[in-house]
Write a structure and sequence with these properties.
The structure is a single chain. The protein is of the alpha+beta class. A hairpin with a 2-residue loop joins strand 8 and strand 9 (170-173). 39% of the residues lie in helices and 15% in strands. The radius of gyration is 44 Å and the shape is elongated. The chain contains 16 helices and 21 strands. The longest helix is centred in the C-terminal third of the chain and has 66 residues, at 409-474. The strands form six sheets. Strands 2, 6, 7, 8, 9, 10, 13, 16, 17 and 18 form a ten-stranded mixed beta sheet that branches. The protein has a three-stranded antiparallel beta sheet with strand order 3-4-5, covered by helices on one side. Strands 1-19 form a two-stranded antiparallel ribbon. Bound molecules: adenosine-5'-diphosphate and magnesium ion. Adenosine-5'-diphosphate is lined by residues 33-34, 36, 109, 111-117, 122, 228, 230-232, 271, 341. Adenosine-5'-diphosphate (ADP) binds at residues 33-34, 36, 109, 111-117, 122, 228, 230-232, 271, 341.
Length: 647
C-alpha cells in the first residue's frame, strides 16, 4: 500500500519537508467501509472496486462503463484502523503542528459511511467501556503518537485541547464546566475566526487527553435513524494546541485564550443525509436541514476556491459557522487532510458519487501553509523571498483593485467595506443605500403626480378649445354648408386637392390630414405628395393661409415663422374663448425646425396634448381672423385654389 508523506520515516526528515509558503493541495484519502450486516442481509451489492492503492472504480447499476476516481490513497473495507492511520500521513501533520503549523484532518461523507468510526472508532459499548485498541481511530492513535513524540523532544512543549460542536448552527463547548451554552464566533485580523470563551484545557498525559475526548464524545449530540444507530447530529471539532514556551515567551496568553503555536484539529463532520431515506422527522429533520445547509456552504466555498480567479476575491466563509471555523484550513495558511468516507452498497450510489465528486474537487484546492511568526531573526534569504512575494502580491492586488474600480466602483466599494468593517459596516451601508433609494422613489412619485395633474389640465384645455373652435367655425356659415377649419373652405372640397401633409395632424372636423401650410410642424418635413402648380409659381401647400397678411410688394420673403408674441396672442385668445386663464404649458416654440420634444412644466413631457392644444389655438385664431375677412355668406364659395381671399 502506498503511503502519503513520510509517516514512518525519520521525524527530522519530515520537518525538512515543511511546505512553508508554497501552494499545497488538500490531501484526500478515500475510505470505503465494509458492507454492514444489515446491508448483506438485505442482499445489497457492492458498486465499488478498488483498483491499486489510489484508484476507485464505480460500476453503475445499469451496467454502463465504470467511472474511475483517483485520490492520494484509496482504502477498501478490508483495511484496518491502523492501515488508515498510516496511509493518511497523520504523523507528518503532527510534526508540522509541533513546528507551529496549523493542520486540519476532517472526515466527510454520507451519514453512516464511517466518518466517526474512522476518527474515533466504534461507539463505546457502555459507560466506562473503552474502545478496544485495535479499533481505536485516527484521533486516539495520533494522541498516543504525539504524547510519545513530545516526551522525546529536547524542548518543553505545552499541550492544550478544546472540543466544540456545531449543532443547529450554534457553537457549543463540549468541555464546558457547566452545561454547554451557545458561544459566539468572532473574527480579528490576528486570529482569523475564533470561538469566544471557548474552554481550552491544558493536559500533560495521554490519559488526561483521552478523558477529554470521552467527555466530549459523550456530550455530543447523536440520534438513531434508519442508516445509523448512532448518527452524529453535529459537526465536532477537537483541537490540540502545541506551544513551546521560552523565557522570552512567558505565557502572555489570557486564561482561556489558545496559545500561539501549532494546531492539530480533528473535524468529524455530520453526514449529509436525504431525509426521505433516513426517515428523519421533527427535531431530526431540523437537524438534518441544518447539517445539509452547512455542508452546502462548505461545498460552495470549495467550488469558489477552485476557481483560480475567484480564489483572490471573496469566498463566503461567513455563510455558516462551519465554514468560518474551517476558513483557515481551506483557503488560508493551514495544511489540510480530508478523509472521504463512502458506503460500498449500490443502494447508496447517488450519495457515494456525490461524495466522490466533492472529494475530487477538494483535492484541487490549495492552501499556503504558514509557520509561526518566530520572534527570532529570520535568515536573510527567507526575508528577501518573503519581501519579493509580498511585493508581487501587492502589485497584483493593486492591479485587481484598479480593474475593479473601473469596472464596478459600487461593487468594489462594498467589498472594501466588507473586508474592513465586516458585517456591521455592511449593514450600515445597506441602511444608507435603502434610505437613498426611498428618497429617490419619493421624488419619482411626486414628479409622476405632477405630470398627471399637468396632463389633466391640458386635456381640459384641449376640450374647451375644441368646443370653442367648433362654435367659432360654425358662426359665419349659419344656414350654409359647414366649413372645415383646416382649409377654411367647405368640408366637402377642402381636401379635394392632394395637398396633404405627411405629418400626423388631421383636421379636427373631417379627420383628413391638414394642408401643409396648416400643419403646426410644417417646417420639419416636406409635403408628401407632388403638388400641382398654380399660377404665381407657388405650390398650393406652400401658399400662405388665407388669414396671413400679404407680403409687402417686392418682398420675396416667405411667411414668417411663429414667434413668442404669436403664442402670447394665442394664449390671450384662448383665454378670451374659454373665459379662464390659460397657462402656457410648453415653452415658446423654437424658431426653425427642431427635433426637441416639447417640455412641460415640472419636467414631464406630454407632446400629444401640447401639440393638439397648439393646433387648436392656431386654428381658433385663424377662424376668428377669417370670420372677419371671410366673404359674406351670400358670396359664392369657391374651390380652395380659387378661394384665396384677395390680398
Ligand atoms: P458516520 O459517522 O459516517 O455517520 P459511523 O462512523 O457512525 O458513520 O458508522 C456507522 C456504522 O458503521 C457504525 O456502526 C460503525 O461502527 C460502522 N462502521 C463504519 N465504518 C466501519 C468499518 N470500517 N468497519 C466496521 N464498521 C464500520
Ligand atoms: Mg458520525
Amino acid at each position: 500500500m502506498e503511503e502519503r508523506g513520510s509517516p514512518d520515516g525519520d521525524p527530522a526528515r519530515s520537518l525538512e519537508q515543511a511546505p512553508e509558503g508554497s501552494e499545497t493541495p488538500i490531501q484526500v484519502v478515500l475510505r470505503v467501509r465494509p458492507m454492514s450486516t444489515a446491508e448483506l442481509r438485505r442482499g445489497e451489492q457492492s458498486a465499488l472496486h478498488c483498483s491499486g492503492t489510489r484508484t476507485l472504480q464505480v460500476s453503475p447499476p445499469g451496467g454502463g462503463p465504470d467511472v474511475a476516481f483517483r485520490f492520494s490513497a484509496v482504502l477498501d473495507g478490508a483495511r484496518t484502523q491502523e492501515d488508515v492511520f498510516r496511509a493518511c500521513g497523520v504523523k507528518r501533520l503532527g510534526e508540522l503542528a509541533l513546528r507551529g503549523f496549523s493542520c486540519t484532518i476532517f472526515t466527510f461523507g454520507q451519514t453512516g459511511s464511517g466518518k466517526t468510526y474512522t476518527l474515533t472508532g466504534p461507539p463505546p459499548q457502555g459507560e466506562g467501556m473503552p474502545v478496544p485498541p485495535s479499533l481505536a481511530g485516527i484521533m486516539q492513535r495520533t494522541f498516543a503518537w504525539l504524547l510519545d513524540r513530545v516526551q522525546h523532544l529536547d524542548v518543553p512543549v505545552t499541550l492544550r485541547a478544546s472540543y466544540l460542536e456545531i449543532y443547529n448552527e450554534q457553537v457549543r463547548d463540549l468541555l464546558s464546566l457547566g452545561s454547554p451554552r451557545p458561544l459566539p464566533v468572532r473574527w480579528n485580523k490576528a486570529r482569523g475566526f475564533y470561538v469566544e470563551q471557548l474552554r481550552v484545557v491544558e493536559f500533560g498525559s495521554l490519559e488526561a487527553l483521552m478523558e477529554l475526548l470521552h467527555m466530549g464524545l459523550s456530550r455530543r449530540q447523536s440520534s438513531s435513524h434508519t442508516l445509523n444507530q448512532a448518527s452524529s447530529r453535529s459537526h465536532a471539532l477537537l483541537t490540540l494546541y502545541v506551544s513551546h514556551p521560552t523565557p522570552q515567551q512567558v505565557p502572555a496568553v489570557d486564561p482561556g485564550e489558545p496559545p500561539v503555536g501549532g494546531k492539530l484539529c480533528f473535524v468529524d463532520l455530520a453526514g449529509s443525509e436525504k431525509v426521505a431515506v433516513t426517515g428523519s422527522r421533527g427535531q431530526l429533520m431540523l437537524e438534518a436541514n441544518s447539517i445539509n445547509r452547512s455542508l452546502l456552504a462548505l461545498g460552495h466555498c470549495i467550488s469558489l476556491l477552485l476557481d483560480p480567479q475567484r480564489k483572490q476575491s471573496h469566498i463566503p466563509f461567513r455563510d455558516s459557522k462551519l465554514t468560518k471555523l474551517l476558513a483557515d484550513s481551506l483557503g488560508g495558511r493551514g495544511v489540510t487532510l480530508m478523509v472521504a468516507c463512502v458506503s460500498p452498497s449500490a443502494q447508496c450510489l447517488p450519495e457515494t458519487l456525490s461524495t466522490l465528486r466533492y472529494a475530487s474537487r477538494a483535492q484541487r484546492v490549495t492552501t499556503r501553509p504558514q509557520g509561526p511568526k518566530s520572534p527570532g531573526v529570520k535568515p536573510p534569504q527567507q526575508v528577501e523571498a518573503e519581501l519579493l512575494q509580498l511585493q508581487e502580491e501587492n502589485r497584483r492586488l493593486r492591479l485587481q483593485l484598479n480593474q475593479m474600480q473601473t469596472k464596478a466602483p459600487g461593487i468594489h466599494g462594498a467589498r472594501v467595506a466588507w473586508a474592513q468593517r465586516n458585517l456591521y459596516g455592511m449593514l450600515q451601508e445597506f441602511m444608507l443605500e435603502n434610505e437613498r433609494l426611498r428618497k429617490e422613489m419619493r421624488q419619482l412619485r411626486s414628479s409622476r403626480d405632477l405630470a398627471q395633474a399637468e396632463r389633466h389640465v391640458l386635456a381640459q384645455q384641449v376640450h374647451e378649445l375644441q368646443r370653442h373652435l367648433l362654435s367659432a367655425c360654425s358662426l359665419p356659415q349659419q344656414g350654409s354648408a359647414s366649413m372645415c377649419p383646416c382649409a377654411m373652405g367647405p368640408a366637402a372640397s377642402c381636401h379635394a386637392q392632394p395637398l396633404l401633409c405627411s405629418c400626423c395632424h388631421p383636421c379636427l372636423l373631417c379627420r383628413v390630414s391638414l394642408a401643409h401650410w396648416a400643419c403646426p410642424q410644417r417646417d420639419c418635413h416636406v409635403p408628401q405628395v407632388v403638388e400641382s402648380r398654380v399660377p404665381g409659381h407657388m405650390s398650393l401647400s406652400a401658399r400662405p393661409p388665407p388669414w396671413v397678411p400679404p407680403p409687402s410688394p417686392g418682398s420675396s420673403k416667405p411667411p414668417r415663422e411663429r414667434n413668442h408674441s404669436d403664442r402670447t396672442q394665442t394664449g390671450v385668445l384662448a383665454e378670451m374663448l374659454t373665459g379662464e386663464e390659460v397657462v402656457p404649458s410648453a415653452p415658446p416654440l423654437p424658431t426653425g425646425c427642431s427635433n426637441m420634444p416639447l417640455t412641460l412644466r415640472g419636467g414631464s413631457g406630454i407632446p400629444n396634448l401640447t401639440q393638439r392644444l397648439e393646433v387648436l389655438t392656431h386654428q381658433v385664431s385663424s377662424s376668428l381672423n377669417l370670420s372677419h375677412s371671410q366673404p359674406q355668406p351670400s358670396e359664392n364659395m369657391q374651390s380652395p385654389g380659387q378661394g384665396l381671399p384677395p390680398y
